[in-house]
Write a structure and sequence with these properties.
heterodimer, A: alpha+beta, Four Helix Bundle (Hemerythrin (Met), subunit A), four-stranded mixed sheet, three-stranded mixed sheet, 18 helices, 16 strands, B: about 190 residues, alpha+beta, Ubiquitin Conjugating Enzyme, 2 domains, four-stranded antiparallel sheet, 4 strands, binds zinc ion, ATP binding (chain B), UBA-like_sf (chain B), ubiquitin conjugating enzyme activity (chain B), UBA (chain B)
């Protein structure tokens, strides 16, 4: 048994142990009765994505640094230069090493001489000319970089300051023309801190943040106001994650989690919803400009002669000014030409597009609205459960209620985002050349059938959850319990099937377009777990979730510590410092709510 | 703050071999951060015989930031804006190194006149012409050199005046002169032939 200090990780351990012990085909999230509200709603086991806080940023990159240092017997600053150049992708570094050899690996990254020792100020009494300021300088005021280029310290310092201010801290090149060597970070730190300690700190932060900025597997959490965290994912960048601040997002595009819509579709959809163009569209469908005063005029009734408030009469079909003398089928002295047909077709098309959009948007919106309504159920449901628990009754386990509600959120969410997906999948905007109309129609029917089933069952589930079961008899409650559990399993399965259908039959069959969606997880969007602040090799090999109490020791000599001042102390913070997870989300219902709902709550 | 002691040294150094390099740099006023550079058009190019003035502004961070340079003389070249004189050259941007000097920058510009890089154009119109119709490009470039980069020899206005006096319409004289790169005799031949 672990000691008390590990409370928060213990929780997770217990849950992991617990749920992995079960048959987790459908419903492990449904049936774990638990003494702790929070863990009841923890959907993921040992999540692979990690929250990187300001404090753990250094520890997060340690493993990569160490691997590279060990494999290539490099000193830390060279390892970092290499990792920055290859965007923190250790696999790429190994691949380049095998393909091109050590020399190329280093020179391409701007490391001319990895075996070189710490650059030292030249100890000599003679003077040398600095090619930058063109002054004679005592050699002791000059610094020779790994590449062999030697300039005076004043010039180096000036160069570093300009580059740091330009935001180029991560790749400050040597001053010599056409020399691609990256300057040694310790030289930079030393020289700059003598003149501008603030700037030296900024430099260190930039270096540290390279792990986030230059790394495709790590991204800043897009929360506003920014929580200060970054998220690291393993292997697949197409996923949805939840930061410890409660913000859920699509890791790939940083928008709200939107699967089973692809990122590209979601971008189009949000733009479409925002765009005035739809109102413009409505106006073109329903009104025509008066040929005299140019105000939009609405058609009233079936007659094609319309008149503007300014008194001008005109033909609805072609928009041309006419007299008022007309019959149903013709206007005196007026005949429309081909022009009319084009106009008519255009407006027919606009009308069709608009109606199609409205169809999908209405459903999307209806489900989003239900979602918002249902997320308010939280307290009511808790109240009902409390009442039931207070009763003398044989019924003890009410986890089915909260689990059912959770399943409802999860499915409702998938359902609402399936509408924008369908809008683009079966529209003619994206995949016109991909398949024949007939093919597409067959697939559309298949998909809509699944969507329909999901919709029906989600509504049923919603209905049962909202029943006032706290006032029911035990038998009735047992019946509702059965229904809720059944429907939970069914909707979960239907969601899974719908995602499968989208991934393989629909998006998977595309030849030209590349659309990826985040995979479906029964347990909902993965909560990233916080990385421990300190890190050692032993810990990594052992239980990853265990947090080390004692500060990092060993191996932290001056050159081993990458980023001087500020950060070294932070490395040593005990684990308790980070127990911020617990304060978040006000309990269980932060799961699976879109950002807007969280905002409103 | 510009390193004026270095600039001073650079100016002395540069103006020592003016006759060999064809490159000179002089302060615009007392202020050493505004300079005028002069380069001669490279032999064997449409710029031959021209003298091109280049406006040089030294930013506060010079030499740690690149000098700002643009042509004060109008020039027809794919990498130089025919409108503003802006120059598209890597060492004036991200490839600048403090070890370079105003003179080396001017030498690079001179080299650019001999070897345009139309794939990385500053002036898309000129670059298109350079790629699709080199002859017209060369003629235009030569005409611009004649018109704007030559002060000593007979100016274009003089030639226009002479040909117009022979009875050709002035507008036609100008276009013809431009088409043959400013050569007075060729222009006359062309005007006479039709
Ligand atoms: Zn110097
Ligand atoms: Zn160098
Ligand atoms: Zn966050
Ligand atoms: Zn996305
Ligand atoms: Zn009107
Ligand atoms: Zn009527
Ligand atoms: Zn008409």
């Amino acid at each position: 048994m672990e000691s008390v200090e590990y409370i928060s990780s213990d929780d997770e351990n217990e849950l992991d142990y617990y749920s992995s012990d079960r048959d987790d085909s459908n419903d492990d999230a449904l049936i774990n009765d638990d003494d702790d509200d929070r863990s009841n709603w923890l959907p993921n086991k040992g999540s692979s994505s990690k929250v990187i806080t300001k404090e753990s940023l250094l520890a997060a990159q340690r493993e990569d640094l160490r691997r590279v240092m060990e494999l290539l017997s490099l000193r830390e600053h060279h390892a970092r230069t290499l990792l920055i150049h290859y965007r923190w992708d250790v696999e790429t570094i190994f691949a380049v090493l095998v393909e091109k050899g050590k020399d190329r690996l280093f020179t391409e990254a701007g490391i001319p001489n990895p075996e070189s020792h710490d650059p030292v100020s030249l100890v000599s009494t003679s003077t040398m000319m600095c090619d930058i300021c063109m002054e004679d300088m005592p050699s002791c005021d000059m610094t020779k970089m790994d590449c062999g280029h030697c300039f005076c310290n004043t010039c180096w310092t000036e160069h570093f300051i300009v580059k740091i201010n330009e935001g180029q801290s991560r790749r400050i090149r040597c001053m010599a023309h056409k020399c691609f060597a990256i300057c040694d970070e310790s030289v930079i730190r030393n020289l700059v801190s003598k003149r501008h300690p603030d700037l030296a700190e900024k430099f260190d932060r930039f270096l540290l943040e390279s792990y986030i900025e230059d790394n495709k597997m790590v991204k800043w959490c897009p929360s506003t106001p920014h929580c200060g965290n970054a998220i690291r994912v393993e292997e697949d960048a197409f996923c949805e994650v939840e930061c410890s601040c409660g913000n859920q997002f699509c890791f790939s595009c940083l928008c709200e989690a939107h699967s089973p819509c692809s990122c590209a579709m979601w971008q189009l959809w949000t733009k479409k919803c925002r765009d005035e163009s739809e109102t413009v569209n409505w106006i073109t469908v329903h009104t025509k400009p008066c040929p005299k005063c140019h105000k939009p005029v609405e058609k009233n009734g079936g007659c094609n002669l319309v008149s503007c408030i300014c008194g001008q009469a005109f033909c609805w079909l072609c928009g041309g000014a006419t007299g008022r003398d007309h019959t149903w089928s013709s206007i005196a002295g007026h005949s429309c030409g081909r022009y009319k047909e084009d106009r008519e077709k255009q407006s027919e098309r606009a009308k069709r597009d608009l109606y199609r959009y409205m169809h999908y948007h209405n459903r999307y919106k209806a489900h989003t609205d239900s979602f918002k309504q249902e997320s308010k159920l939280k307290e009511t449901i808790q109240g009902k459960v409390a009442i039931l628990e207070g009763k003398e009754s044989q019924l003890r386990d009410f986890s089915w209620v909260t689990n059912g509600l959770y399943r409802l959120f999860r499915s409702r969410r998938a359902l609402s985002y399936s509408y924008p997906f369908a809008f683009y999948m079966f529209g003619d905007e994206l995949f016109n050349d991909e398949m024949t109309k007939e093919d597409l129609e067959i697939k559309q029917h298949l998909f809509e059938d699944q969507q329909q089933q999901l919709e029906t069952n989600v509504e049923k589930l919603s209905k049962f959850i909202e029943e006032p079961f706290d006032s029911f008899t035990e038998d009735k409650i047992m019946e509702i319990r059965m229904q809720v559990i059944n429907l939970s399993v069914i909707t979960d399965n239907l969601c899974k099937k719908m995602y499968e259908c989208i991934e393989t039959d629909l998006l998977g069959s595309l030849q030209f377009g590349i659309h990826n969606i985040a995979p479906y997880h029964s347990k909902g969007i993965e909560k990233a777990t916080e990385l421990p602040v300190s890190w050692t090799a032993k810990q990594c090999a052992g239980d990853k979730r265990k947090r080390l109490e004692e500060p990092t020791t060993g191996g932290s000599s001056e050159s081993d510590r990458p980023s001087g001042s500020g950060s070294s102390e932070e490395t040593d913070f005990p684990a308790q410092k980070m127990a911020r997870t617990d304060g978040f989300g006000g309990g269980m219902f932060d799961l699976n709510l879109p950002a807007e709902v969280i905002d409103r709550n | 703050m510009v390193d004026f002691s270095r600039v001073q040294k650079e100016l002395q150094e540069c103006n020592k071999d003016i006759n060999v390099s064809g490159i000179s740099v002089n302060p615009k006023s007392d202020n050493l951060s505004n300079l005028i550079g002069t380069i001669t058009g490279p032999v064997g190019t449409p710029y031959e015989g021209g003298t091109f003035k280049i406006d040089i502004d030294l930013p506060g961070g010079y030499p740690f930031e690149p000098p700002k340079m643009k042509f004060a003389t109008k020039v027809w070249h794919p990498n130089i804006s025919s409108q503003s004189g802006a120059i598209c050259l890597d060492i004036l941007k991200d490839q600048w190194s403090p070890a370079l000097t105003i003179k080396t920058a001017l030498l690079s510009i001179q080299a650019l006149l001999s070897a345009p890089a139309p794939d990385d154009p500053q002036d898309a119109v000129v670059a298109q012409q350079y790629l699709k119709d080199y002859q017209t490009f060369a003629n235009t470039a030569r005409y611009w050199t004649e018109s704007f980069a030559k002060t000593s020899s007979a100016g274009v206005e003089e030639k226009v005046g002479k040909l117009a006096e022979m009875g050709f319409p002035e507008a036609l004289v100008r276009t013809t002169l431009e088409a043959v790169g400013g050569d007075e005799n060729l222009a006359l031949e062309k005007l006479l032939s039709g």
